[in-house]
């Protein structure tokens, strides 16, 4: 019995030491995150190259006003130059001017001498330019714009005045830009515009004007091999592939389901549609967050496999659309899906719809030059139609019409298109009453 107390003391001492050692090990323990990522995380899948936000935010047309004459271009190279010029601009202020902007006021601003107007297809959140402009204001407005008017009349003072216009919200914001090298801006962006083709303003009572090229348009008909990667997209959208079951619904349709979500592949339209009903949400998301979430979701798996550009923002249902472009022109088709659509849900993707193909190689031997009528010729034809009125048109654009025969070869042919409410209509000879020169 006389040894009991010394034994207790030794045991207690050992327990205290063990407690200290274990506590130290817990505090200093660093898990092998690489191992965890490999064993617990999903392997990273890249279907295409990852891109910057500026790659999907790009204008489609620029109009310049010189001494009461318009020049303009839709050149892809010029659009890239304009976006590169914007990089690093110091936006000194950003102030609301008008929240009930009339169409006539917009037309008057675009007619102002020594100004250029940059047109975007969709409404762009100001936050999308955070990586391009240097905004003095840290808090940017939760709104959007689809046109920029740049007044260079005071460039000799190293200052530009920039207006941001939203067609949807009928709002006008004004800012000033301080340029270290204003002469370089004029030399690289303004002076070349004097050599561009002339444009005509097509005025419409109570509507914003259309700006149409006066010259006939030469473009190329292309034939491409395409690459199809539907299986990779399946690996992207489903978190646990072991639970995914496939069902062939028809000769052209396959369905994949995991009990919670589903993906449908359509080989006829070369498209996929993924939906996760559990993610559905009626909560409206602000434009800046909506764009950030949508862009990051697609970009994380390299989903911008070709030249896709933001063309539509709908915060009412949290939907964004990215249009497929080629050589600076939009692609439309009745045979294939040509947009990426995302609908954001409860902190995750709710609907993801897109093409599952990408352009791989141009078959140069199949190239064919096409001459299209001038925009002014097309407008005169439209004026004589009963089924299309100029006041209903959002824009009149040259784009590519894509066709395929269920193979891995597609053809894209330049054509004129009418855009109404975001929907394209190909202007065929039947519609235009016999106009030729490549409108088929």
Which keywords apply here?
single chain; 440 residues; alpha+beta; 15-stranded mixed β-sheet; 26 strands; 38% strand; globular
Notes on the structure:
The chain has 440 residues and is of the alpha+beta class. Helix content is 22%, strand content 38%. It has a 15-stranded mixed β-sheet that branches. Strands 1, 2, 3, 4, 5, 6, 7, 8, 9, 10 and 11 form an 11-stranded mixed β-sheet that branches. A hairpin with a 4-residue loop joins strand 8 and strand 9.
Write the layout of secondary structure elements.
Elements lengths: L3 H25 L4 H7 L13 H4 L4 E6 L2 E5 L2 H11 L3 E2 L3 E4 L4 H8 L4 E11 L8 E2 L8 E8 L7 E8 L4 E8 L3 H9 L7 E7 L2 E7 L3 E12 L1 H8 L7 E4 L4 E5 L4 E5 L4 E5 L11 H14 L6 E8 L4 E8 L2 E4 L6 E6 L4 E7 L1 E6 L5 E5 L2 H9 L11 E10 L4 E12 L2 E4 L2 H4 L8
Parallel strand pairs: 3-6, 19-24
Antiparallel strand pairs: 1-2, 1-5, 2-10, 3-9, 4-9, 5-7, 7-8, 8-9, 10-11, 12-22, 12-23, 12-25, 13-14, 14-15, 15-16, 16-21, 17-18, 18-19, 18-20, 20-21, 24-25, 25-26
Could you describe the largest sheet, including whether it forms a barrel? 15 strands, mixed
Mean pLDDT: 88
The gyration radius over C-alpha positions equals 28 Å
Per DSSP, what share of the residues sits in E-state strands of 2 or more residues?
35-45%
Q: What is the overall number of helices?
A: 10
- The dominant shape is globular
Q: Separation of termini?
A: 109 Å
Count of β-strands:
26
Q: Which stretches are low in confidence, meaning pLDDT under 50 for 5 or more residues running?
A: 28-41, 434-440
């Amino acid at each position: 019995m006389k040894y009991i107390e010394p034994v207790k003391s030794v045991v207690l001492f050992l327990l205290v030491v063990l407690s200290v050692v274990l506590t130290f090990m817990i505090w200093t323990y660093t898990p092998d995150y690489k191992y965890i990522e490999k064993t617990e995380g999903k392997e990273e899948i890249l279907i295409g190259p990852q891109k910057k936000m500026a790659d999907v935010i790009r204008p489609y047309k620029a109009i310049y006003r010189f001494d009461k004459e318009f020049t303009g271009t839709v050149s892809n190279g010029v659009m890239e130059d304009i976006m590169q010029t914007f990089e690093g601009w110091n936006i000194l202020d950003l102030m609301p001017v008008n929240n009930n902007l009339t169409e006539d006021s917009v037309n008057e601003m675009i007619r102002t001498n020594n100004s250029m107007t940059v047109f975007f297809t969709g409404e762009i959140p100001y936050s999308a330019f955070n990586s391009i402009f240097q905004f003095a204001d840290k808090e940017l407005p939760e709104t959007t714009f689809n046109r920029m008017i740049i007044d260079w009349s005071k460039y000799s003072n190293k200052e530009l005045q920039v207006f941001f216009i939203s067609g949807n919200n009928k709002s006008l914001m004004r800012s000033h830009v301080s340029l270290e090298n204003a002469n370089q801006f004029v030399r690289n962006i303004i002076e070349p515009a004097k050599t561009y083709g002339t444009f005509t303003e097509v005025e419409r009572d109570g509507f914003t004007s259309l700006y149409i090229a006066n010259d006939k348009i030469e473009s190329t008909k292309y034939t491409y091999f395409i690459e199809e990667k539907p299986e990779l997209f399946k690996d992207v959208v489903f978190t646990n592939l072991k639970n995914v079951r496939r069902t062939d619904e028809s000769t052209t349709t396959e369905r994949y389901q995991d009990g919670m979500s589903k993906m449908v592949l359509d080989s006829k339209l070369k498209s996929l549609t993924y939906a996760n009903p559990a993610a559905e949400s009626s909560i409206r998301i602000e434009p800046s967050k909506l764009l950030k979430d949508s862009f990051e979701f697609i970009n994380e798996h390299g989903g911008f496999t070709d030249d896709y550009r933001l063309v539509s923002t709908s915060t009412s249902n949290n939907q964004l659309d990215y249009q497929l472009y080629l050589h600076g022109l939009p692609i439309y088709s009745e045979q294939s899906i040509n947009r990426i659509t995302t609908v954001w849900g409860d902190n995750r993707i709710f609907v993801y719809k897109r093409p599952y193909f990408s352009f791989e190689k141009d078959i140069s031997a199949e190239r064919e030059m096409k001459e299209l009528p001038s925009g002014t010729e097309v407008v005169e034809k439209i004026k004589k139609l009963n089924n299309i009125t100029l006041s209903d048109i959002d824009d009149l654009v040259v784009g590519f019409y894509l066709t395929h025969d269920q193979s891995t070869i597609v053809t894209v042919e330049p054509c004129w298109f009418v855009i109404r409410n975001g929907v394209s209509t190909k202007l065929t000879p039947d519609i235009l009453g016999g106009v030729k020169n490549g409108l088929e």
